[in-house]
Amino acid sequence: MASILMSAMPFAGHVAPVAAVARELVRRGHDVRVHTGSAYATTFADAGATPVPWRHARDFDERDLAATFPRLRDRKGARQMIANVQALFLGTAAGQCADLHDEFRRRPWDLVAADSLALGARFAAELSRRPRVALSVVPLAIPDRDAPPPFLGLDPLPGPVGRLRDAALWGALEVATTPLRRAYGRARRDAGLGPTPERLDEVWLGGDDVVASGVPALDRRESWPGLARFVGDIAWEPGGAVSPRPARLPDWWHDVRTAEVPVVHVTQGTYNVDPHDLILPSVEALAGRDVLTVVGLAPRTPPLPGPLPANARVATMLPYDELLPRTAVVVTNGGWGGVLAALRHGVPLVVAGGDLDKPEIAARVQRAGAGVNLRTGTPTARQVRDGVGQVLTHGRYAAAAARIGADLRAAGGAPAAADAIERHLP
What we know:
Elements lengths: L2 E5 L4 H16 L3 E6 L4 H6 L3 E4 L11 H4 L8 H14 L2 H14 L4 E5 L3 H10 L3 E5 L22 H18 L1 H13 L18 E4 L16 E2 L22 H5 L5 E5 L11 H8 L5 E5 L15 E4 L4 H4 L5 E4 L3 H9 L4 E3 L6 H10 L3 E3 L7 H13 L1 H17 L2 H9 L4
Parallel strand pairs: 1-2, 1-4, 2-3, 4-5, 5-6, 6-7, 8-9, 8-11, 9-10, 11-12, 12-13
Helix pairs in contact: 1-16, 4-8, 5-6, 10-14, 12-15
């Protein structure tokens, strides 16, 4: 039995894959502690791990970030991305490290296996001189100067024009991220560490190994020899835990089980939850169509205005392991966990990726042939209707989703991630 320290940024999309790996490591007999925000302490306790709460780190509620970080209020697009990185990931890193320094002095660990965006765990691994495995629970973003910067949702452009474009974009990124580089330097100093020669875009994936969610078909490159190990959908536990099932299924669930028309699932994730962005345009787009529209709401999504179309069904929590095998198309804002879950079931997608990493995810889905990229986070009803119609009409999307689904399942999920972690145990 080894003592393993894990860490997860307190967001639902980060917690689910880390919890799956923690549960697998506990099942194998390891002593697992997980550093995370207070909102998810019970999640990890239920997985059999020991929660290590954020104390020095400034805890926050992902449902209301502006309550803790007022400068994040009403930000969108690139401004939101930069503000989020500075406040949430860099701004809390030294506090995370202080928490973990206290925990290591109380009881040392053998290895750190952490969410790659939890920089405090990286700092703690450096200070404790223990091996570190980075879990890339968001799309792998290894810097590649022969391509555009990641998370812009841009396709590679060959030839001199492409090289000029990419050089200009990387130069603009260097200027735009100057405050972030300074914040990273301050975080290291506050954690008791010296400067590092790494560029800012390299620090997220340092360590002894990178365990990446996804498969090569969904990456910017087909492989990263010696740099990363793809394990598919990290949150997937074959033969083990399934997605949470509501205590009571919706009264209309029989309609899903017996549907003789295509089921279209619509989800806007758990972060930006204004239903006017995607849910309401999708409901309007599919009204009167020969489909069953099944809408999944986040817990804090405002109630939808009624009356709803006759072919629409809405619930706050849906059992994905029962829904996705019956689904023909998923309309999504592009959250990585939801995209991987849909593709693992072989379901093609229509992606409306507007903020953060979602434009990049939408572009990857389209490049892989497994869906349509609407190129906006606030599509019109017509754009959604055309996207769904395209996927339902052309079988190539379902065929590509089925191929990627087979790759995701073969990659192994949480057990494969646990295997990779165990390789670095002393």
